[in-house]
Amino acid sequence: MIRTLAYLLALAATPAAAQTIAVTHAEAWTMESGEPVRDATIVIEQGRIVSVTPGGEVPEDASVIDARGKPVTPGLMNGATQVGLIETASADTRDQGSSDERNAGFDPSRALNGNSTLVDLIRADGVTRALIYPSPSRIPVFAGEPAIARFREGVDILGEREVAVYAVIGGGAWDRVGSRAQQWAVLRKALGDAKRAMPAPEAGDGKKHDRHGPPPGRGRRVGEELIRGVIAGETPLAIHTNRESDIREAIKLASDFGIRVIIVEGAQAWRAADALAAAKIPVVLDPAANLPGGFDELGARQDNAAILARAGVKVAFGLAGGKIHTNYNAGIALREGAGIAVANGLPYADALRAVTVNPLSIWSKGGGTLSAGADADLVVWDGDPLEPSTNATAVIIEGRRVSARSRQDLLAERYKDIR
Hints:
Oligomer: single chain
Number of domains: 2
CATH architecture of the largest domain: Alpha-Beta Barrel
Number of helices: 12
Helix content: 25-40%
């Protein structure tokens, strides 16, 4: 009796993610090859993908979604946005930056707003994850630590925090410092201080012991542990920069300190494609950028992604929609930008990778495939997902079907009969 009661209680507490779902007749882009699996049945249980099988059987207890031969992709990921931190121009909806000296330790994830109307909109456009980055803070060169948002329903959209240390070089971000040479000096000093504070191996035992402590004359401030994590290889250093000379300086920095570096935006990254590939430094870029927003971006071109990919650089897409629409249209602009990259020479499968597996590989531990054991984040489309006129007909996050309706949809329905 006790066992039966315990079983019933456990069953009652089982989340909706435990529901079995079968997506049938799918053109399934598994991202494990350059071609989709035709007429696939995708079975989902306990928040995970169980199988992707051509003409596969449907479990008896499954809730069925008929894809009708249309594309099904992993949930998309925007590689750099501020959805959840910015709602409108009103100051009480803008939580993206820090104004104190704890730059590297500024954690914007504590302000993520899952009830933002922009979250509903980006989810309706098939984006299930995003890298949420902080804006430049008051004192250079660190902005804070980006986080990964998971656009599940409800207020809690935090997926992972402390995924990187975020620095900004150039672009007029640090007018108080002046020359970008000084910006690089500040960054190198912070890394050097962190390296000197790292534990050193004691002779003979192969273990590490903290011989140094904090650098002379400095206390342990919030963020210093994160910078030591960069030196230890535990955390990547994201450098938001555009000019070719700065990108090459970032490559040298990665070599000098033996650290993992990620370039964000990189309007002129194509000019250093071979060097980036040799250094195994990925680039998160706006695929639609072709007009300079400043002098650092004079070399912007829409085949940036294609040139980088041909050289062997891992590319992800973010910052979509330009300076104005990067948050408000972060989903549809991401898909449209990926389509523009295809029109400018990037293979179609590579464009899909740039909005699925690549950003997860760059910012997290991987994933973003439709394969057995993978997270059940996927989208059923009514056409080509890289066409802006295409809609998501079903969005599944963590094994649950979520709403694909936004405030815009509700307003359109409310006022459609008004003449």
